[in-house]
Amino acid sequence: MLKGRLGLETARLPHADRHGLLWLDRGTLSVEDGCLRFVAAGSETVAAGDYRLPHQSVSLVLLGPGSSISHDALRLLARHGTGLAAIGEGGVRFYTAQPLTPDSSALARAQALAWADAKGTRMKVARRMYALRLGEVLPHRDITVLRGIEGARMKEVYRLAAERAGIAWAGRRYDRANPTAADLPNQAINHAASAVEAAAAIAVAATGTIPQLGFIHEDSGQSFVLDIADLFRDEVTVPCAFKAVAIAQRHSGDPIERTTRRIVAERLRRGGVIPAMIDRIKALFVEEPSA
């Protein structure tokens, strides 16, 4: 049934995960016989070949480096409500995306309702985020107190991660006006954070939630993206940054930014980080009486 129209009789790429994200790179995306066609030159993630893609069951196409797309493909994706995002290697950059039209507005509405209730639900969501990061639900309901507790905990996280990686650590230092003035570990943390924020931006786009409505971050136009990225600071950002420093100190060939981005991309791809971000976004807005 529908075999020919979907192109299922020929080789096709499997979904990267259950959320219907499709990762493509080093190839050309076009339309043939009413079906998406991807001709891949071959890479670490996509074997060389000619693929037919059943676009009706794909939620978001992530188009990586070395790829091009035809006007017909853009038209077909838009007609079927399939999102398209241009990303960096492994999802470490989020360059642009066409407007997404999710099947449901439930998550965006839940987010907006929670955010609008500043003294009630907004604080509940913020406390859930801190609970995910701290491993426990704290009794405090003052965001300033929670930020202070998290800041003190992160000092110890940095120290232990540096010790495990075997690198010298003199504390977190970051001058926004002159980021390259920082030492190697701090530069690596900055690059890793940017890469993980790009992954979070992909997750936010995939869920149709609103980037501007953050619960811990407030002023940035990407506040909710920063909130989600911070949930993975311990398990992704810091370990990847310090691993990059350890490699750079042994082999000083590549710039620290390139080394860090490569390590984060590998972690995102092999660790299923973006699907995990999507799951956490959904969990944040589920009503829990004890929250």
Q: Can you offer a commentary on this structure?
A:
- There is one protein chain.
- With 291 residues, the chain is α/β, with parallel strands linked by helices.
- The chain has 2 domains: 3-87, Ribosomal Protein L15, Chain: K, domain 2; 106-284, CRISPR-associated endonuclease Cas1, C-terminal domain (Four Helix Bundle (Hemerythrin (Met), subunit A)).
- It has 10 helices and 8 strands.
- The chain has helices spanning 3-6, 71-79, 106-116, 121-134, 143-165, 184-207, 223-230, 233-250, 256-271, 273-284, and strands at residues 21-24, 27-32, 35-40, 49-53, 60-63, 68-69, 83-87, 94-97.
- The strands form 2 sheets. Strands 1-5-7-8 form a 4-stranded mixed β-sheet, with helices on both faces.
- Strand 7 (83-87) and strand 8 (94-97) form a beta hairpin.
- Helix 6 packs across helix 7 (223-230).
- The chain is flat and about 60 Å long.
- The model is unreliable at 1-17 (pLDDT under 50).
Brief summary of the model shown:
Its EC number is 3.1.-.-. The protein has 291 residues and is of the alpha/beta class.
What's the topology here?
Elements (H helix, E strand, L loop, with lengths): L2 H4 L14 E4 L2 E6 L2 E6 L8 E5 L6 E4 L4 E2 L1 H9 L3 E5 L6 E4 L8 H11 L4 H14 L8 H23 L18 H24 L15 H8 L2 H18 L5 H16 L1 H12 L7
Parallel strand pairs: 1-5, 2-6, 5-7
Antiparallel strand pairs: 2-3, 3-4, 7-8
Helix pairs in contact: 3-4, 4-5, 5-8, 6-7, 6-8, 6-9, 6-10, 8-9
Keywords: Antiviral defense, DNA-binding, Endonuclease, Hydrolase, Magnesium, Manganese, Metal-binding, Nuclease
Protein name: CRISPR-associated endonuclease Cas1
Family: Belongs to the CRISPR-associated endonuclease Cas1 family.
